[in-house]
């Protein structure tokens, strides 16, 4: 799959200027609606709403992922498995697939319009009420920040490993049958993740703790309230459309 993962698309738009917490709350409201009301009209309205957000965010078409053929083959295989149980089962399967696509698209919209450095401070601010219950909100936010910072590096190292495997000389048929590139990639990914986690832990210990997530944390403004109102109106409109259809 060739796409921009966990990186902000460098354009200026009203969606980019929103607070990261507002986008996460909006995605949560959409997912909550789809969990409670996963009908086709609601899914259609949410798809149109996400497309409108992408247009307002001025995201180029090249940002969209180009999924490999085997991904669509697996989806088709799932439909064939449900086919003997009748058309209703296939429709329900398609509904679940579309539901998953909507949630993944909402998550990608957050990643494409938000600097990853703003996600962890927003999570810490949203989880501030949990501090009264002695929940380690700041520590969790630091873990999220370090994970988001390390994932692009991990993906890049996996790409380098795959490219290096392609440059290896051709092996015999027997060796090729017993050699699994997936195992090598997963082993390398686990080794890299463990090494980076150890290095980050030593660095945090040397600094004396987690410290501040950011020197100048962003805060919600009036436009964030307007954006949440638009999301609520879209969710309410989807329910109304479903009741009228």
UniProtKB/TrEMBL annotation:
Sorted UniProt keywords: Membrane, Transmembrane, Transmembrane helix
Subcellular location: Membrane
Transmembrane segments: 20-37, 42-61, 67-83, 90-112, 140-158, 225-244
Chief place where the protein resides: membrane
The keyword Translocase appears for this protein: no
GO terms for cellular component: plasma membrane
Membrane topology: Multi-pass membrane protein
Keyword Transferase tagged: no
Protein name: Putative ABC transporter
Species the sequence originates in: Nocardia farcinica (strain IFM 10152)
